[in-house]
Amino acid sequence: MSDAEILMFSPMLPIVEKTLAEKLTLHRLWTMDDPESFLADKAANIKGIAYGGHTPLTANMIDRFPNLEIIANFGVGYDAVDAVHAGTKSIVVTNTPDVLTDEVADTAMGLTLMTVRELSAAERHLRAGKWLQGAYPLTRGTMSGRTMGILGLGRIGQAIARRAEAFGVKIAYHRRTRQDDIAWDYYDSPEALAAACDILMIVLPGTPQTHHLVDAKVLAALGPDGIVINIGRGSVIDEEALVKALQDGTIRSAGLDVFEHEPSVPDALIAMDHVVLLPHVGSASIHTRDGMGKLVADNIIAWFETGKPLTPVPETPVPAAT
Ligand code: NAP
Ligand code: 8YV
To answer: Has 262 been annotated as catalytic?
Structure first.
């Protein structure tokens, strides 16, 4: 086995630390008395980074490790890591696809039901003792017979589509590449998709191209009965435009698991009772997070044992293991 030294910046799940520490030398930066002097003295020894959280791992930070070979990101979305820069330095970046797809799709459906049928507001009505004064008002929202427009029909988007179909919901989608083997209706822009659906389901990665892809124009196209759900990345929605659209009735409601400046959530959103807000819990079960953590460690181990990472991202210049 390799004697490669691996660095972790902040605590990760026990499965990640245990699996890596059993096979490689693991340094835990957050436990050190003087992390800066460790970086100054030992950065050249570090060949792998196990990375969690959403704080950016910038080009400058990557460049502090002249012999770095692999960055294994905890999460399928790797927007926190400058993978383009890593690619130019022949550093492999890996992510955690597939192992979380079902969990995130389940969360997306829960969030959709909560928002469309106002379930959290209805529960608050009961808990506040208001049922004794009268029933919770009928919701204008319903699922069956409505159209869900999926913005980003990748692994998770397709898993959501299959679930939504079981609720009697019609599916439409937009992504950059139309899928000839998929029968669902394709729209060639986010705006056209929004105009054609009742529920706009965002499952996009956070990239420069998706930044504020859902803006005031897209929200206007969704219309006054429209509901937006975001399970992808907060940066995809122009949050200021969303707040305005909710306040002035341009759209009816929103269900959000992700935000532009997590963990900060605008007070204006918190003040709206009919909007559903979750603290980025899409994949947050022990089962699924352990699967993601195992994949982080297995990617690093596979790289040092075989030279082939299990799940490299497209910016990565090496073939994946077969
Ligand atoms: P995926 O399989 O790569 O799907 C991403 C989809 O987005 C693809 O269909 C891609 O299609 C489309 N896309 C990318 N850029 C686009 C653009 N500029 N315009 C239109 N479509 C674009 O990824 P996944 O596994 O489904 O995960 C999707 C994202 O969900 C992750 O990147 C992550 O940010 C987020 N996520 C959130 C949670 C949570 O806890 N809330 C959990 C897991 C994942 P084309 O390439 O054809 O455009
Ligand atoms: C994780 C996610 O919670 O995989 C992703 O892209 O957003 C979530 O599954 C997150 O990346 C870890 O904090």
So the answer is: yes
